[in-house]
Amino acid sequence: MSLAQQRKAEKVLDKVTKVEKGTWILPSISDETKTHTVQLKGDEFECDCLGFIHTLNCYHIMAVQMLGKKEEEREVKFMTSEESLMEEQVKTMPIDFEEYNPENITVWDTYRPIKNEYEEVQRAIMEADFPYLIESEKGQGKTLLVHTLCKRNKIALITQPLGSGTTERDLIGSKEINRDGTVFNLGLLPRAIEVANNYKHALLYGDEGNAQDHEMQKYWNSICDGRRYVYANGKKYQLNEGCKLAIVWTINPVTYAGVNSMTEDLRSRFTGDVWAYPTKEELKQIIKWDDLSEETIIDPLLQLVQDVYALRVKGEVEYALSIRDIVQFVKYIQSNDSLEQTIRHVILIKYSDITERELVRIRCNDTFGVNV
Questions:
Q1: Is the same domain home to 230 and 158?
Q2: Overall domain count for the chain
Q3: What angle do CA 254, 121, 326 make, to 5 degrees?
Q4: CA 219, CA 223: separation in Å to the nearest integer?
Q5: Which residue, 340, 332, 326, is CA-closest to 298?
Q6: What is the pLDDT of residues 85-124, one digit of tens each?
Q7: Which of the residues 21, 63, 123, 323 has the least number of beta carbons within 10 Å of its own beta carbon?
């Protein structure tokens, strides 16, 4: 391509119109009343001004190729427009709806409310008007609460692990080859819509949703606002009239290692609440202590939990002891009379950093009056 041809291509670059896949129309420089059509056929371009040719002889083709390169450079890894998602369809793999039957939901423990969070989350799930966000420290029972509410209210539950490894294949779906040929296996988002349409009311649960890369979080936008649809395998999956799809995300604070923030546009679609770290009095009420000594076990343990949380707030440790850790402590010491072993195996094991572990060990010795 000569420099003159390249300059001609640059002049018409902004006037290229894509009329359909593989076909573009652009004006002639010599006569603005005329247009030329460029088509991609196989690996070669054809322009109606010169016929089947190579780029070196036609600035129209050069302009189309330059435009394509620009689009590649600014192309986002996720698809946002309807046109980009309308790809050739293959047969969709059937969904086993029985897998999401509310009767099959496992509830592994009894959820004990701390404040009014049970009623608040239940209202959000039952109304399903807006996605609901719960932000709190780990181990406060967020996942248990969601499973409990779905089980009690007979709401289908759709969930899968989310994190930095979550991809478009996980959220939208992917083509797979099996004995029946090529099929499309629906990802989490279109699958949730189909389950909601089948059961009339379903909950899509995103545990630690903000651990996803920001590019992946973008895929959630259309299902989390008034559109209530996503595109997959060239088809629009939309929530049917009269059906409800509640969406709940639970996230840990962004101060946690390996945790991303939520994108601003996605967070704006959510209502929700930030759960405060429970006080000593609240923890004392919700834990089943059985016959443990209040003086030698319960009060020192609750004090230690608050002290370690204060260390985390100051940035001296990364791990704050949770309700889950307290339950582990109680069950462990009930089956093992050694307080020192319980501290070592339940509390100190949580700290991989030797400096943090030593700091917590000293706190344990001081608080319980032991020598671990």
A1: yes
A2: 3
A3: 60
A4: 8
A5: 326
A6: 445 578 899 999 999 999 999 999 999 999 999 999 999 9
A7: 21
Tell me the CA end-to-end span of the chain in Å, nearest whole number: 78
Please write the tens of the pLDDT for every residue from 113-157: 999 999 999 999 999 999 999 999 888 999 999 999 999 999 999
Phi-psi category of residue 271: left, alpha or beta, with phi > 0 → left and psi -120 to 50 → alpha: beta
Which stretch of 35-44, 175-184, 350-359 has the lowest confidence by average pLDDT?
Answer: 35-44
DSSP state for residue 291 in the 8-state scheme: T
Same domain for 338 and 265, yes or no, is no
DSSP for residue 116: S
Question: Is residue 222 domain-shared with residue 286, that is, in the same domain?
Answer: no
Whether 54 shows a pLDDT value over 70: the answer reads: no
The rounded distance, in Å, linking the Cα atoms of 206 and 130 is: 14
User: 70: pLDDT confidence band, cut at 50, 70 and 90?
Assistant: low
The tokens describing 175, both together, are: 């083509």
Task: Indicate whether 139 and 204 sit together in one domain.
Answer: yes
Helix axes 117-127, 142-153, angle to 10 degrees: 50
Contacts of 234 (CB under 8 A, 6+ apart): 85, 86, 87, 88, 89
Look up the domain containing 140 and give its range: 91-274
Strand, coil or helix: what is 114?
coil
Query: If 0-12 CB within 10 Å is exposed, 13-18 middle and 19+ buried, where does residue 323 land?
Result: buried
Q: What is the pTM of this model?
A: 0.72
